[in-house]
Amino acid sequence: MGENSWAKSLPVVKSKADLAYETLHGAIARGDLKPGDRVNMDELSRVLGVSKIPVREAVKRLESDGLLVARPHAGVTVAAVDVAEMRGVFLAREAIEALVAGLAAERVTDGALAALEGAQADMRAALAGGELAAMAELNSRFHGLLAEAAGYRVLAELTDQLLLTVRRFRITAPMGEREWASVVEEHEALLAALRSRDVRAAEDAARLHMRAQADHEVAVGA
Description:
Blueprint: H1 16-30, E1 38-39, H2 41-48, H3 52-64, E2 68-71, E3 75-78, H4 86-107, H5 110-128, H6 135-150, H7 153-172, H8 177-195, H9 199-221
Antiparallel strand pairs: 1-3, 2-3
C-alpha cells in the first residue's frame, strides 16, 4: 500500500474561497452575471454566509482568469468580451478541437460514445422543443465529453476555458434556431467519424464545425 493511499478515502472539503469562486464562476458561465454587471461582494458574502476575505480571494482568482475586472472606486465588474479577439478564440478552438476529435476517434470507448450520443440527443430534443436557452450548456457538455474521450486533462481544461469565452460571447450575440440546428448537424458528422473510429474524418469534421461557428459568431458580433 502506498504511503499516502489513506488520503484517497478522505472526503474533499472545499474552502470558503473555493465556494465563492465556484459560485461566481458558475453565474458568469450561465449568464446570470453578464459582461459589465457589477459584483456586489457584500451581498455575496451574506448569501454564502462567509466573510469578505474568501470573497476577495475568489475575486482575485477570477481576475487572473480574465473573468472579472476590479478598478479603484469603481468596484468589481464582469469583464467584457473583446469581439476583436473572438477570431483568435475560434482559431484556437479549431486547432484544439481537431486534435481532441482525432484523439477521441482513436481512444473513444463504447461508454464515452454513448455519453456523447446522449448529449447529442438532449440537444436535438431541446432544439425541437424550442428550448434555445438550454442549448449553450448542452453544447458545452457535448464538447466537454469529447475532450474527456481524448484522454488528456490539459486538453479538457483548454476546451473548458475556450467554451466559457464563447458562452460569454453568446450572451451578447445569441444564436437562433437555425444556427443551433447547424451546430447539431455538425455534431452528427463528428459522431459518425467517432463511431467508425476514423481519425482523419473526425479531425476534418471538427475543423469544419469550428469554421462554421466562427463565420457565424464573429460576423454577428462585428
